[in-house]
TrEMBL record:
The keyword Transferase does not apply. GO terms for molecular function: beta-N-acetylhexosaminidase activity. It comes from Dillenia turbinata. This is Beta-hexosaminidase. Residues 188-514 form the Glycoside hydrolase family 20 catalytic domain. Belongs to the glycosyl hydrolase 20 family. It comes from the Eukaryota. Its EC number is 3.2.1.52. The lineage of its organism: Eukaryota, Viridiplantae, Streptophyta, Embryophyta, Tracheophyta.
């Protein structure tokens, strides 16, 4: 199975059992012995040593110091310093603490990065080490990382180690766990969330809030499924008519300035923005601007009296690009150039899923090609051979959905996709088709009495999913990571947060530190109480995550689980 990064060569005399779930930044006072609840971080760190559980208070003048003065890091430092001072998070289960006013306050957290120039890209080192001194052992904590992006992950962890205590007839104290050391790094380099903004439009504010929550969950790839058959909301400089005619309207388009804002926002939070323009299928919206290059556009998706195999699309919204028309490639080359200028991300998702035979068969040009002895595989192969080199010439690694090789009806030979420049993303057939794994979020019935996205995936289902199941060590190392996908047939901004969170948090932990305890057992029961607490914190941060249990269960940890908490 997947081989985790080795832990650092320091002794861990006590590995804390993380019980309640995620906490943020802030503290004041000295905790002599915690009685009930323990500290919580989500996702759970790979290694956390806390030999003598205690806490100290943060100074009112507490400051986070950027020893490198890096632009991206400085932005994060300022953001987290504000969060630490202002959040005043109160855990759902308040720790019973004895506070001493005699211990010195924690004055600073110093952040030191070894390679501040390392760019945000796939495979960048995200490891960090966090040390918070014990009471009377110093007034400064230290966070070290190889890269800015690892430092950002460590800042998030520090924020979760702080909580508010007191108030009312007692002084409000901001406490931080002390005498603690964390070493942490992700198991998988690709930890993503897909958002479909074609079937329903999402304002930029919703996208930014989603990226903010992703960063807090240590997710690092925002997979932006921008266009589809239903609408083309991306306003491209070289091909503006695609959006002007193919979007839902003037207020439902993304301008180049919007794209820049999203990319910049993600960069400041260590989240890459991976764009997807799905082709040659899922392109019905292109027909509003260029009807001549789109086959079967604006037709009823499942002709009356026909079998499912003879459908024109898998859901309402027909249209495939016609690979046999030269103008198709003239337009695509301009789109590729614009996308390379708008998105610095080195991965480009080109789609290639669900090429439906019936759509191409009804097009006169393609029908004649087939009647002359050609095949649908050859049509798709022409498309891939004509577009793949253009994307590689723009210094892009091309991501395709698995269908391009594995679809039973229309596919290409693996020999035309060089492994050095190609990534496959699986969405179907579970562990039998494992590459980048996608765990679907919520989408609609395709109309044939079932749903490829059903049943609804609970957070437990997502948490327990092993993306390298059935693979040997060599195969497991080829798996880059996973994504949760929110397809928007039945979702829009009004339900975004609750559909995504906290189920996506479950994926975040499994891809960061796994879903098993030290004995190799699934830890979803233990994770329940922690996820309850983390969801509570996300809500306080403005993310309207749905609850996973009644508050009564949260007040009585473990009693609502299906696994006995004391076994």
């Amino acid at each position: 199975m997947y081989t985790p990064t080795p832990r650092p060569p320091y002794s861990s005399s006590y590995s804390i059992h993380l019980v309640s779930a995620f906490i943020t930044l802030i503290g004041l006072g000295y905790l002599t012995h915690p009685v009930s609840a323990q500290i919580n971080v989500w996702p759970k760190p790979r290694s956390l040593s806390w030999p003598t559980p205690q806490a100290i208070s943060l100074s009112p003048a507490f400051a986070i110091n950027d020893a490198n003065s890096c632009p991206n890091l400085s932005t994060a430092v300022n953001r987290y310093q504000t969060l630490v001072r202002s959040e005043k998070h109160r855990p759902l289960l308040t720790p019973a603490l004895n506070i001493s006013d005699s211990a010195p306050l924690l004055q600073t957290l110093t952040v030191l990065v070894a390679d501040p120039g390392s760019p945000l890209q796939h495979g960048v080192d995200e490891s960090y080490t966090l040390r918070i001194p014990a009471a009377n052992r110093g007034t400064g904590a230290n966070l070290t990382a190889k890269t800015v992006w690892g430092a950002m992950r460590g800042l998030e962890t520090f924020s979760q180690l702080v909580w508010a205590w007191g108030g009312g007839d007692r002084p409000l104290l901001l406490l931080v766990a002390s005498g603690l050391e964390v070493w942490d790094a992700p198991l998988f380099p690709h930890r993503g969330l897909l958002l479909d903004t074609s079937r329903n439009y999402y304002p930029i504010a919703d996208i930014l809030r989603t990226i903010e929550a992703m960063s807090a969950n240590k997710l690092n790839v925002f997979h932006w499924h921008i266009t589809d058959s239903q609408s083309f909301p991306l306003l491209l400089p070289s091909e503006p008519d695609l959006a002007l005619k193919g979007s839902y309207g003037p207020g439902m388009m993304y301008s180049p300035a919007d794209i820049h804002r999203v990319v910049r926002f993600g960069l400041d939070r260590g989240v890459r923005v991976l764009p997807e323009i799905d082709t040659p299928g899922h392109t019905g919206s292109w027909a509003a601007a260029y009807p001549e290059i789109v086959a079967c556009a604006n037709m009823f998706w499942w002709p009356a009296g026909s079998e499912w195999a003879d459908r024109l699309a898998s859901e309402p919204g027909t249209g495939h690009l016609n690979p046999l028309i030269p103008k198709t490639y003239e337009i695509l080359r301009k789109i590729f150039s614009d996308m390379a200028n708008l998105f610095p991300e080195q991965f480009y998702h080109a789609g290639a899923d669900e090429v439906i035979p019936g759509c191409w068969k009804v097009d006169p040009t393609i029908s004649k090609f087939l009647s002359d002895g050609g095949t649908l595989n050859q049509v798709l192969e022409k498309f891939i051979n004509s577009t793949f080199p253009d994307l590689v010439s723009l210094n892009r690694t091309v991501v395709y959905w698995e269908d391009v090789l594995l679809d039973p009806n229309v596919n290409v030979s693996p020999t035309i996709l060089p492994p050095d420049h190609t990534i496959l993303q699986t969405w179907n057939n579970g562990p039998n088709n494992t590459m980048i794994v996608r765990i679907s979020g919520h989408c609609s019935d395709p109309g044939n009495g079932g749903s490829w996205c059903g049943p609804f995936k609970t957070w437990q289902t997502i948490y327990n999913y092993d993306i390298t199941y059935g693979l040997n060590d060599k195969e497991s190392k080829l798996v880059l990571g996973g994504e949760v996908a929110l397809w928007s047939e039945q979702a829009d901004p009004t339900v975004l947060d609750a559909r995504v969170w906290p189920r996506t948090s479950a994926l975040a932990e499994t891809l960061w530190s796994g879903n098993r305890d030290e004995k190799g057992m699934k830890r979803y029961a233990e994770a329940t109480d922690r996820l309850n607490e983390w969801r509570h914190r996300m809500v306080s941060r403005g993310i309207k995550a749905e609850p996973i249990q009644p508050l009564w269960c949260i007040r009585n940890p473990g009693i609502c689980n299906t696994v006995h908490p004391f076994e």
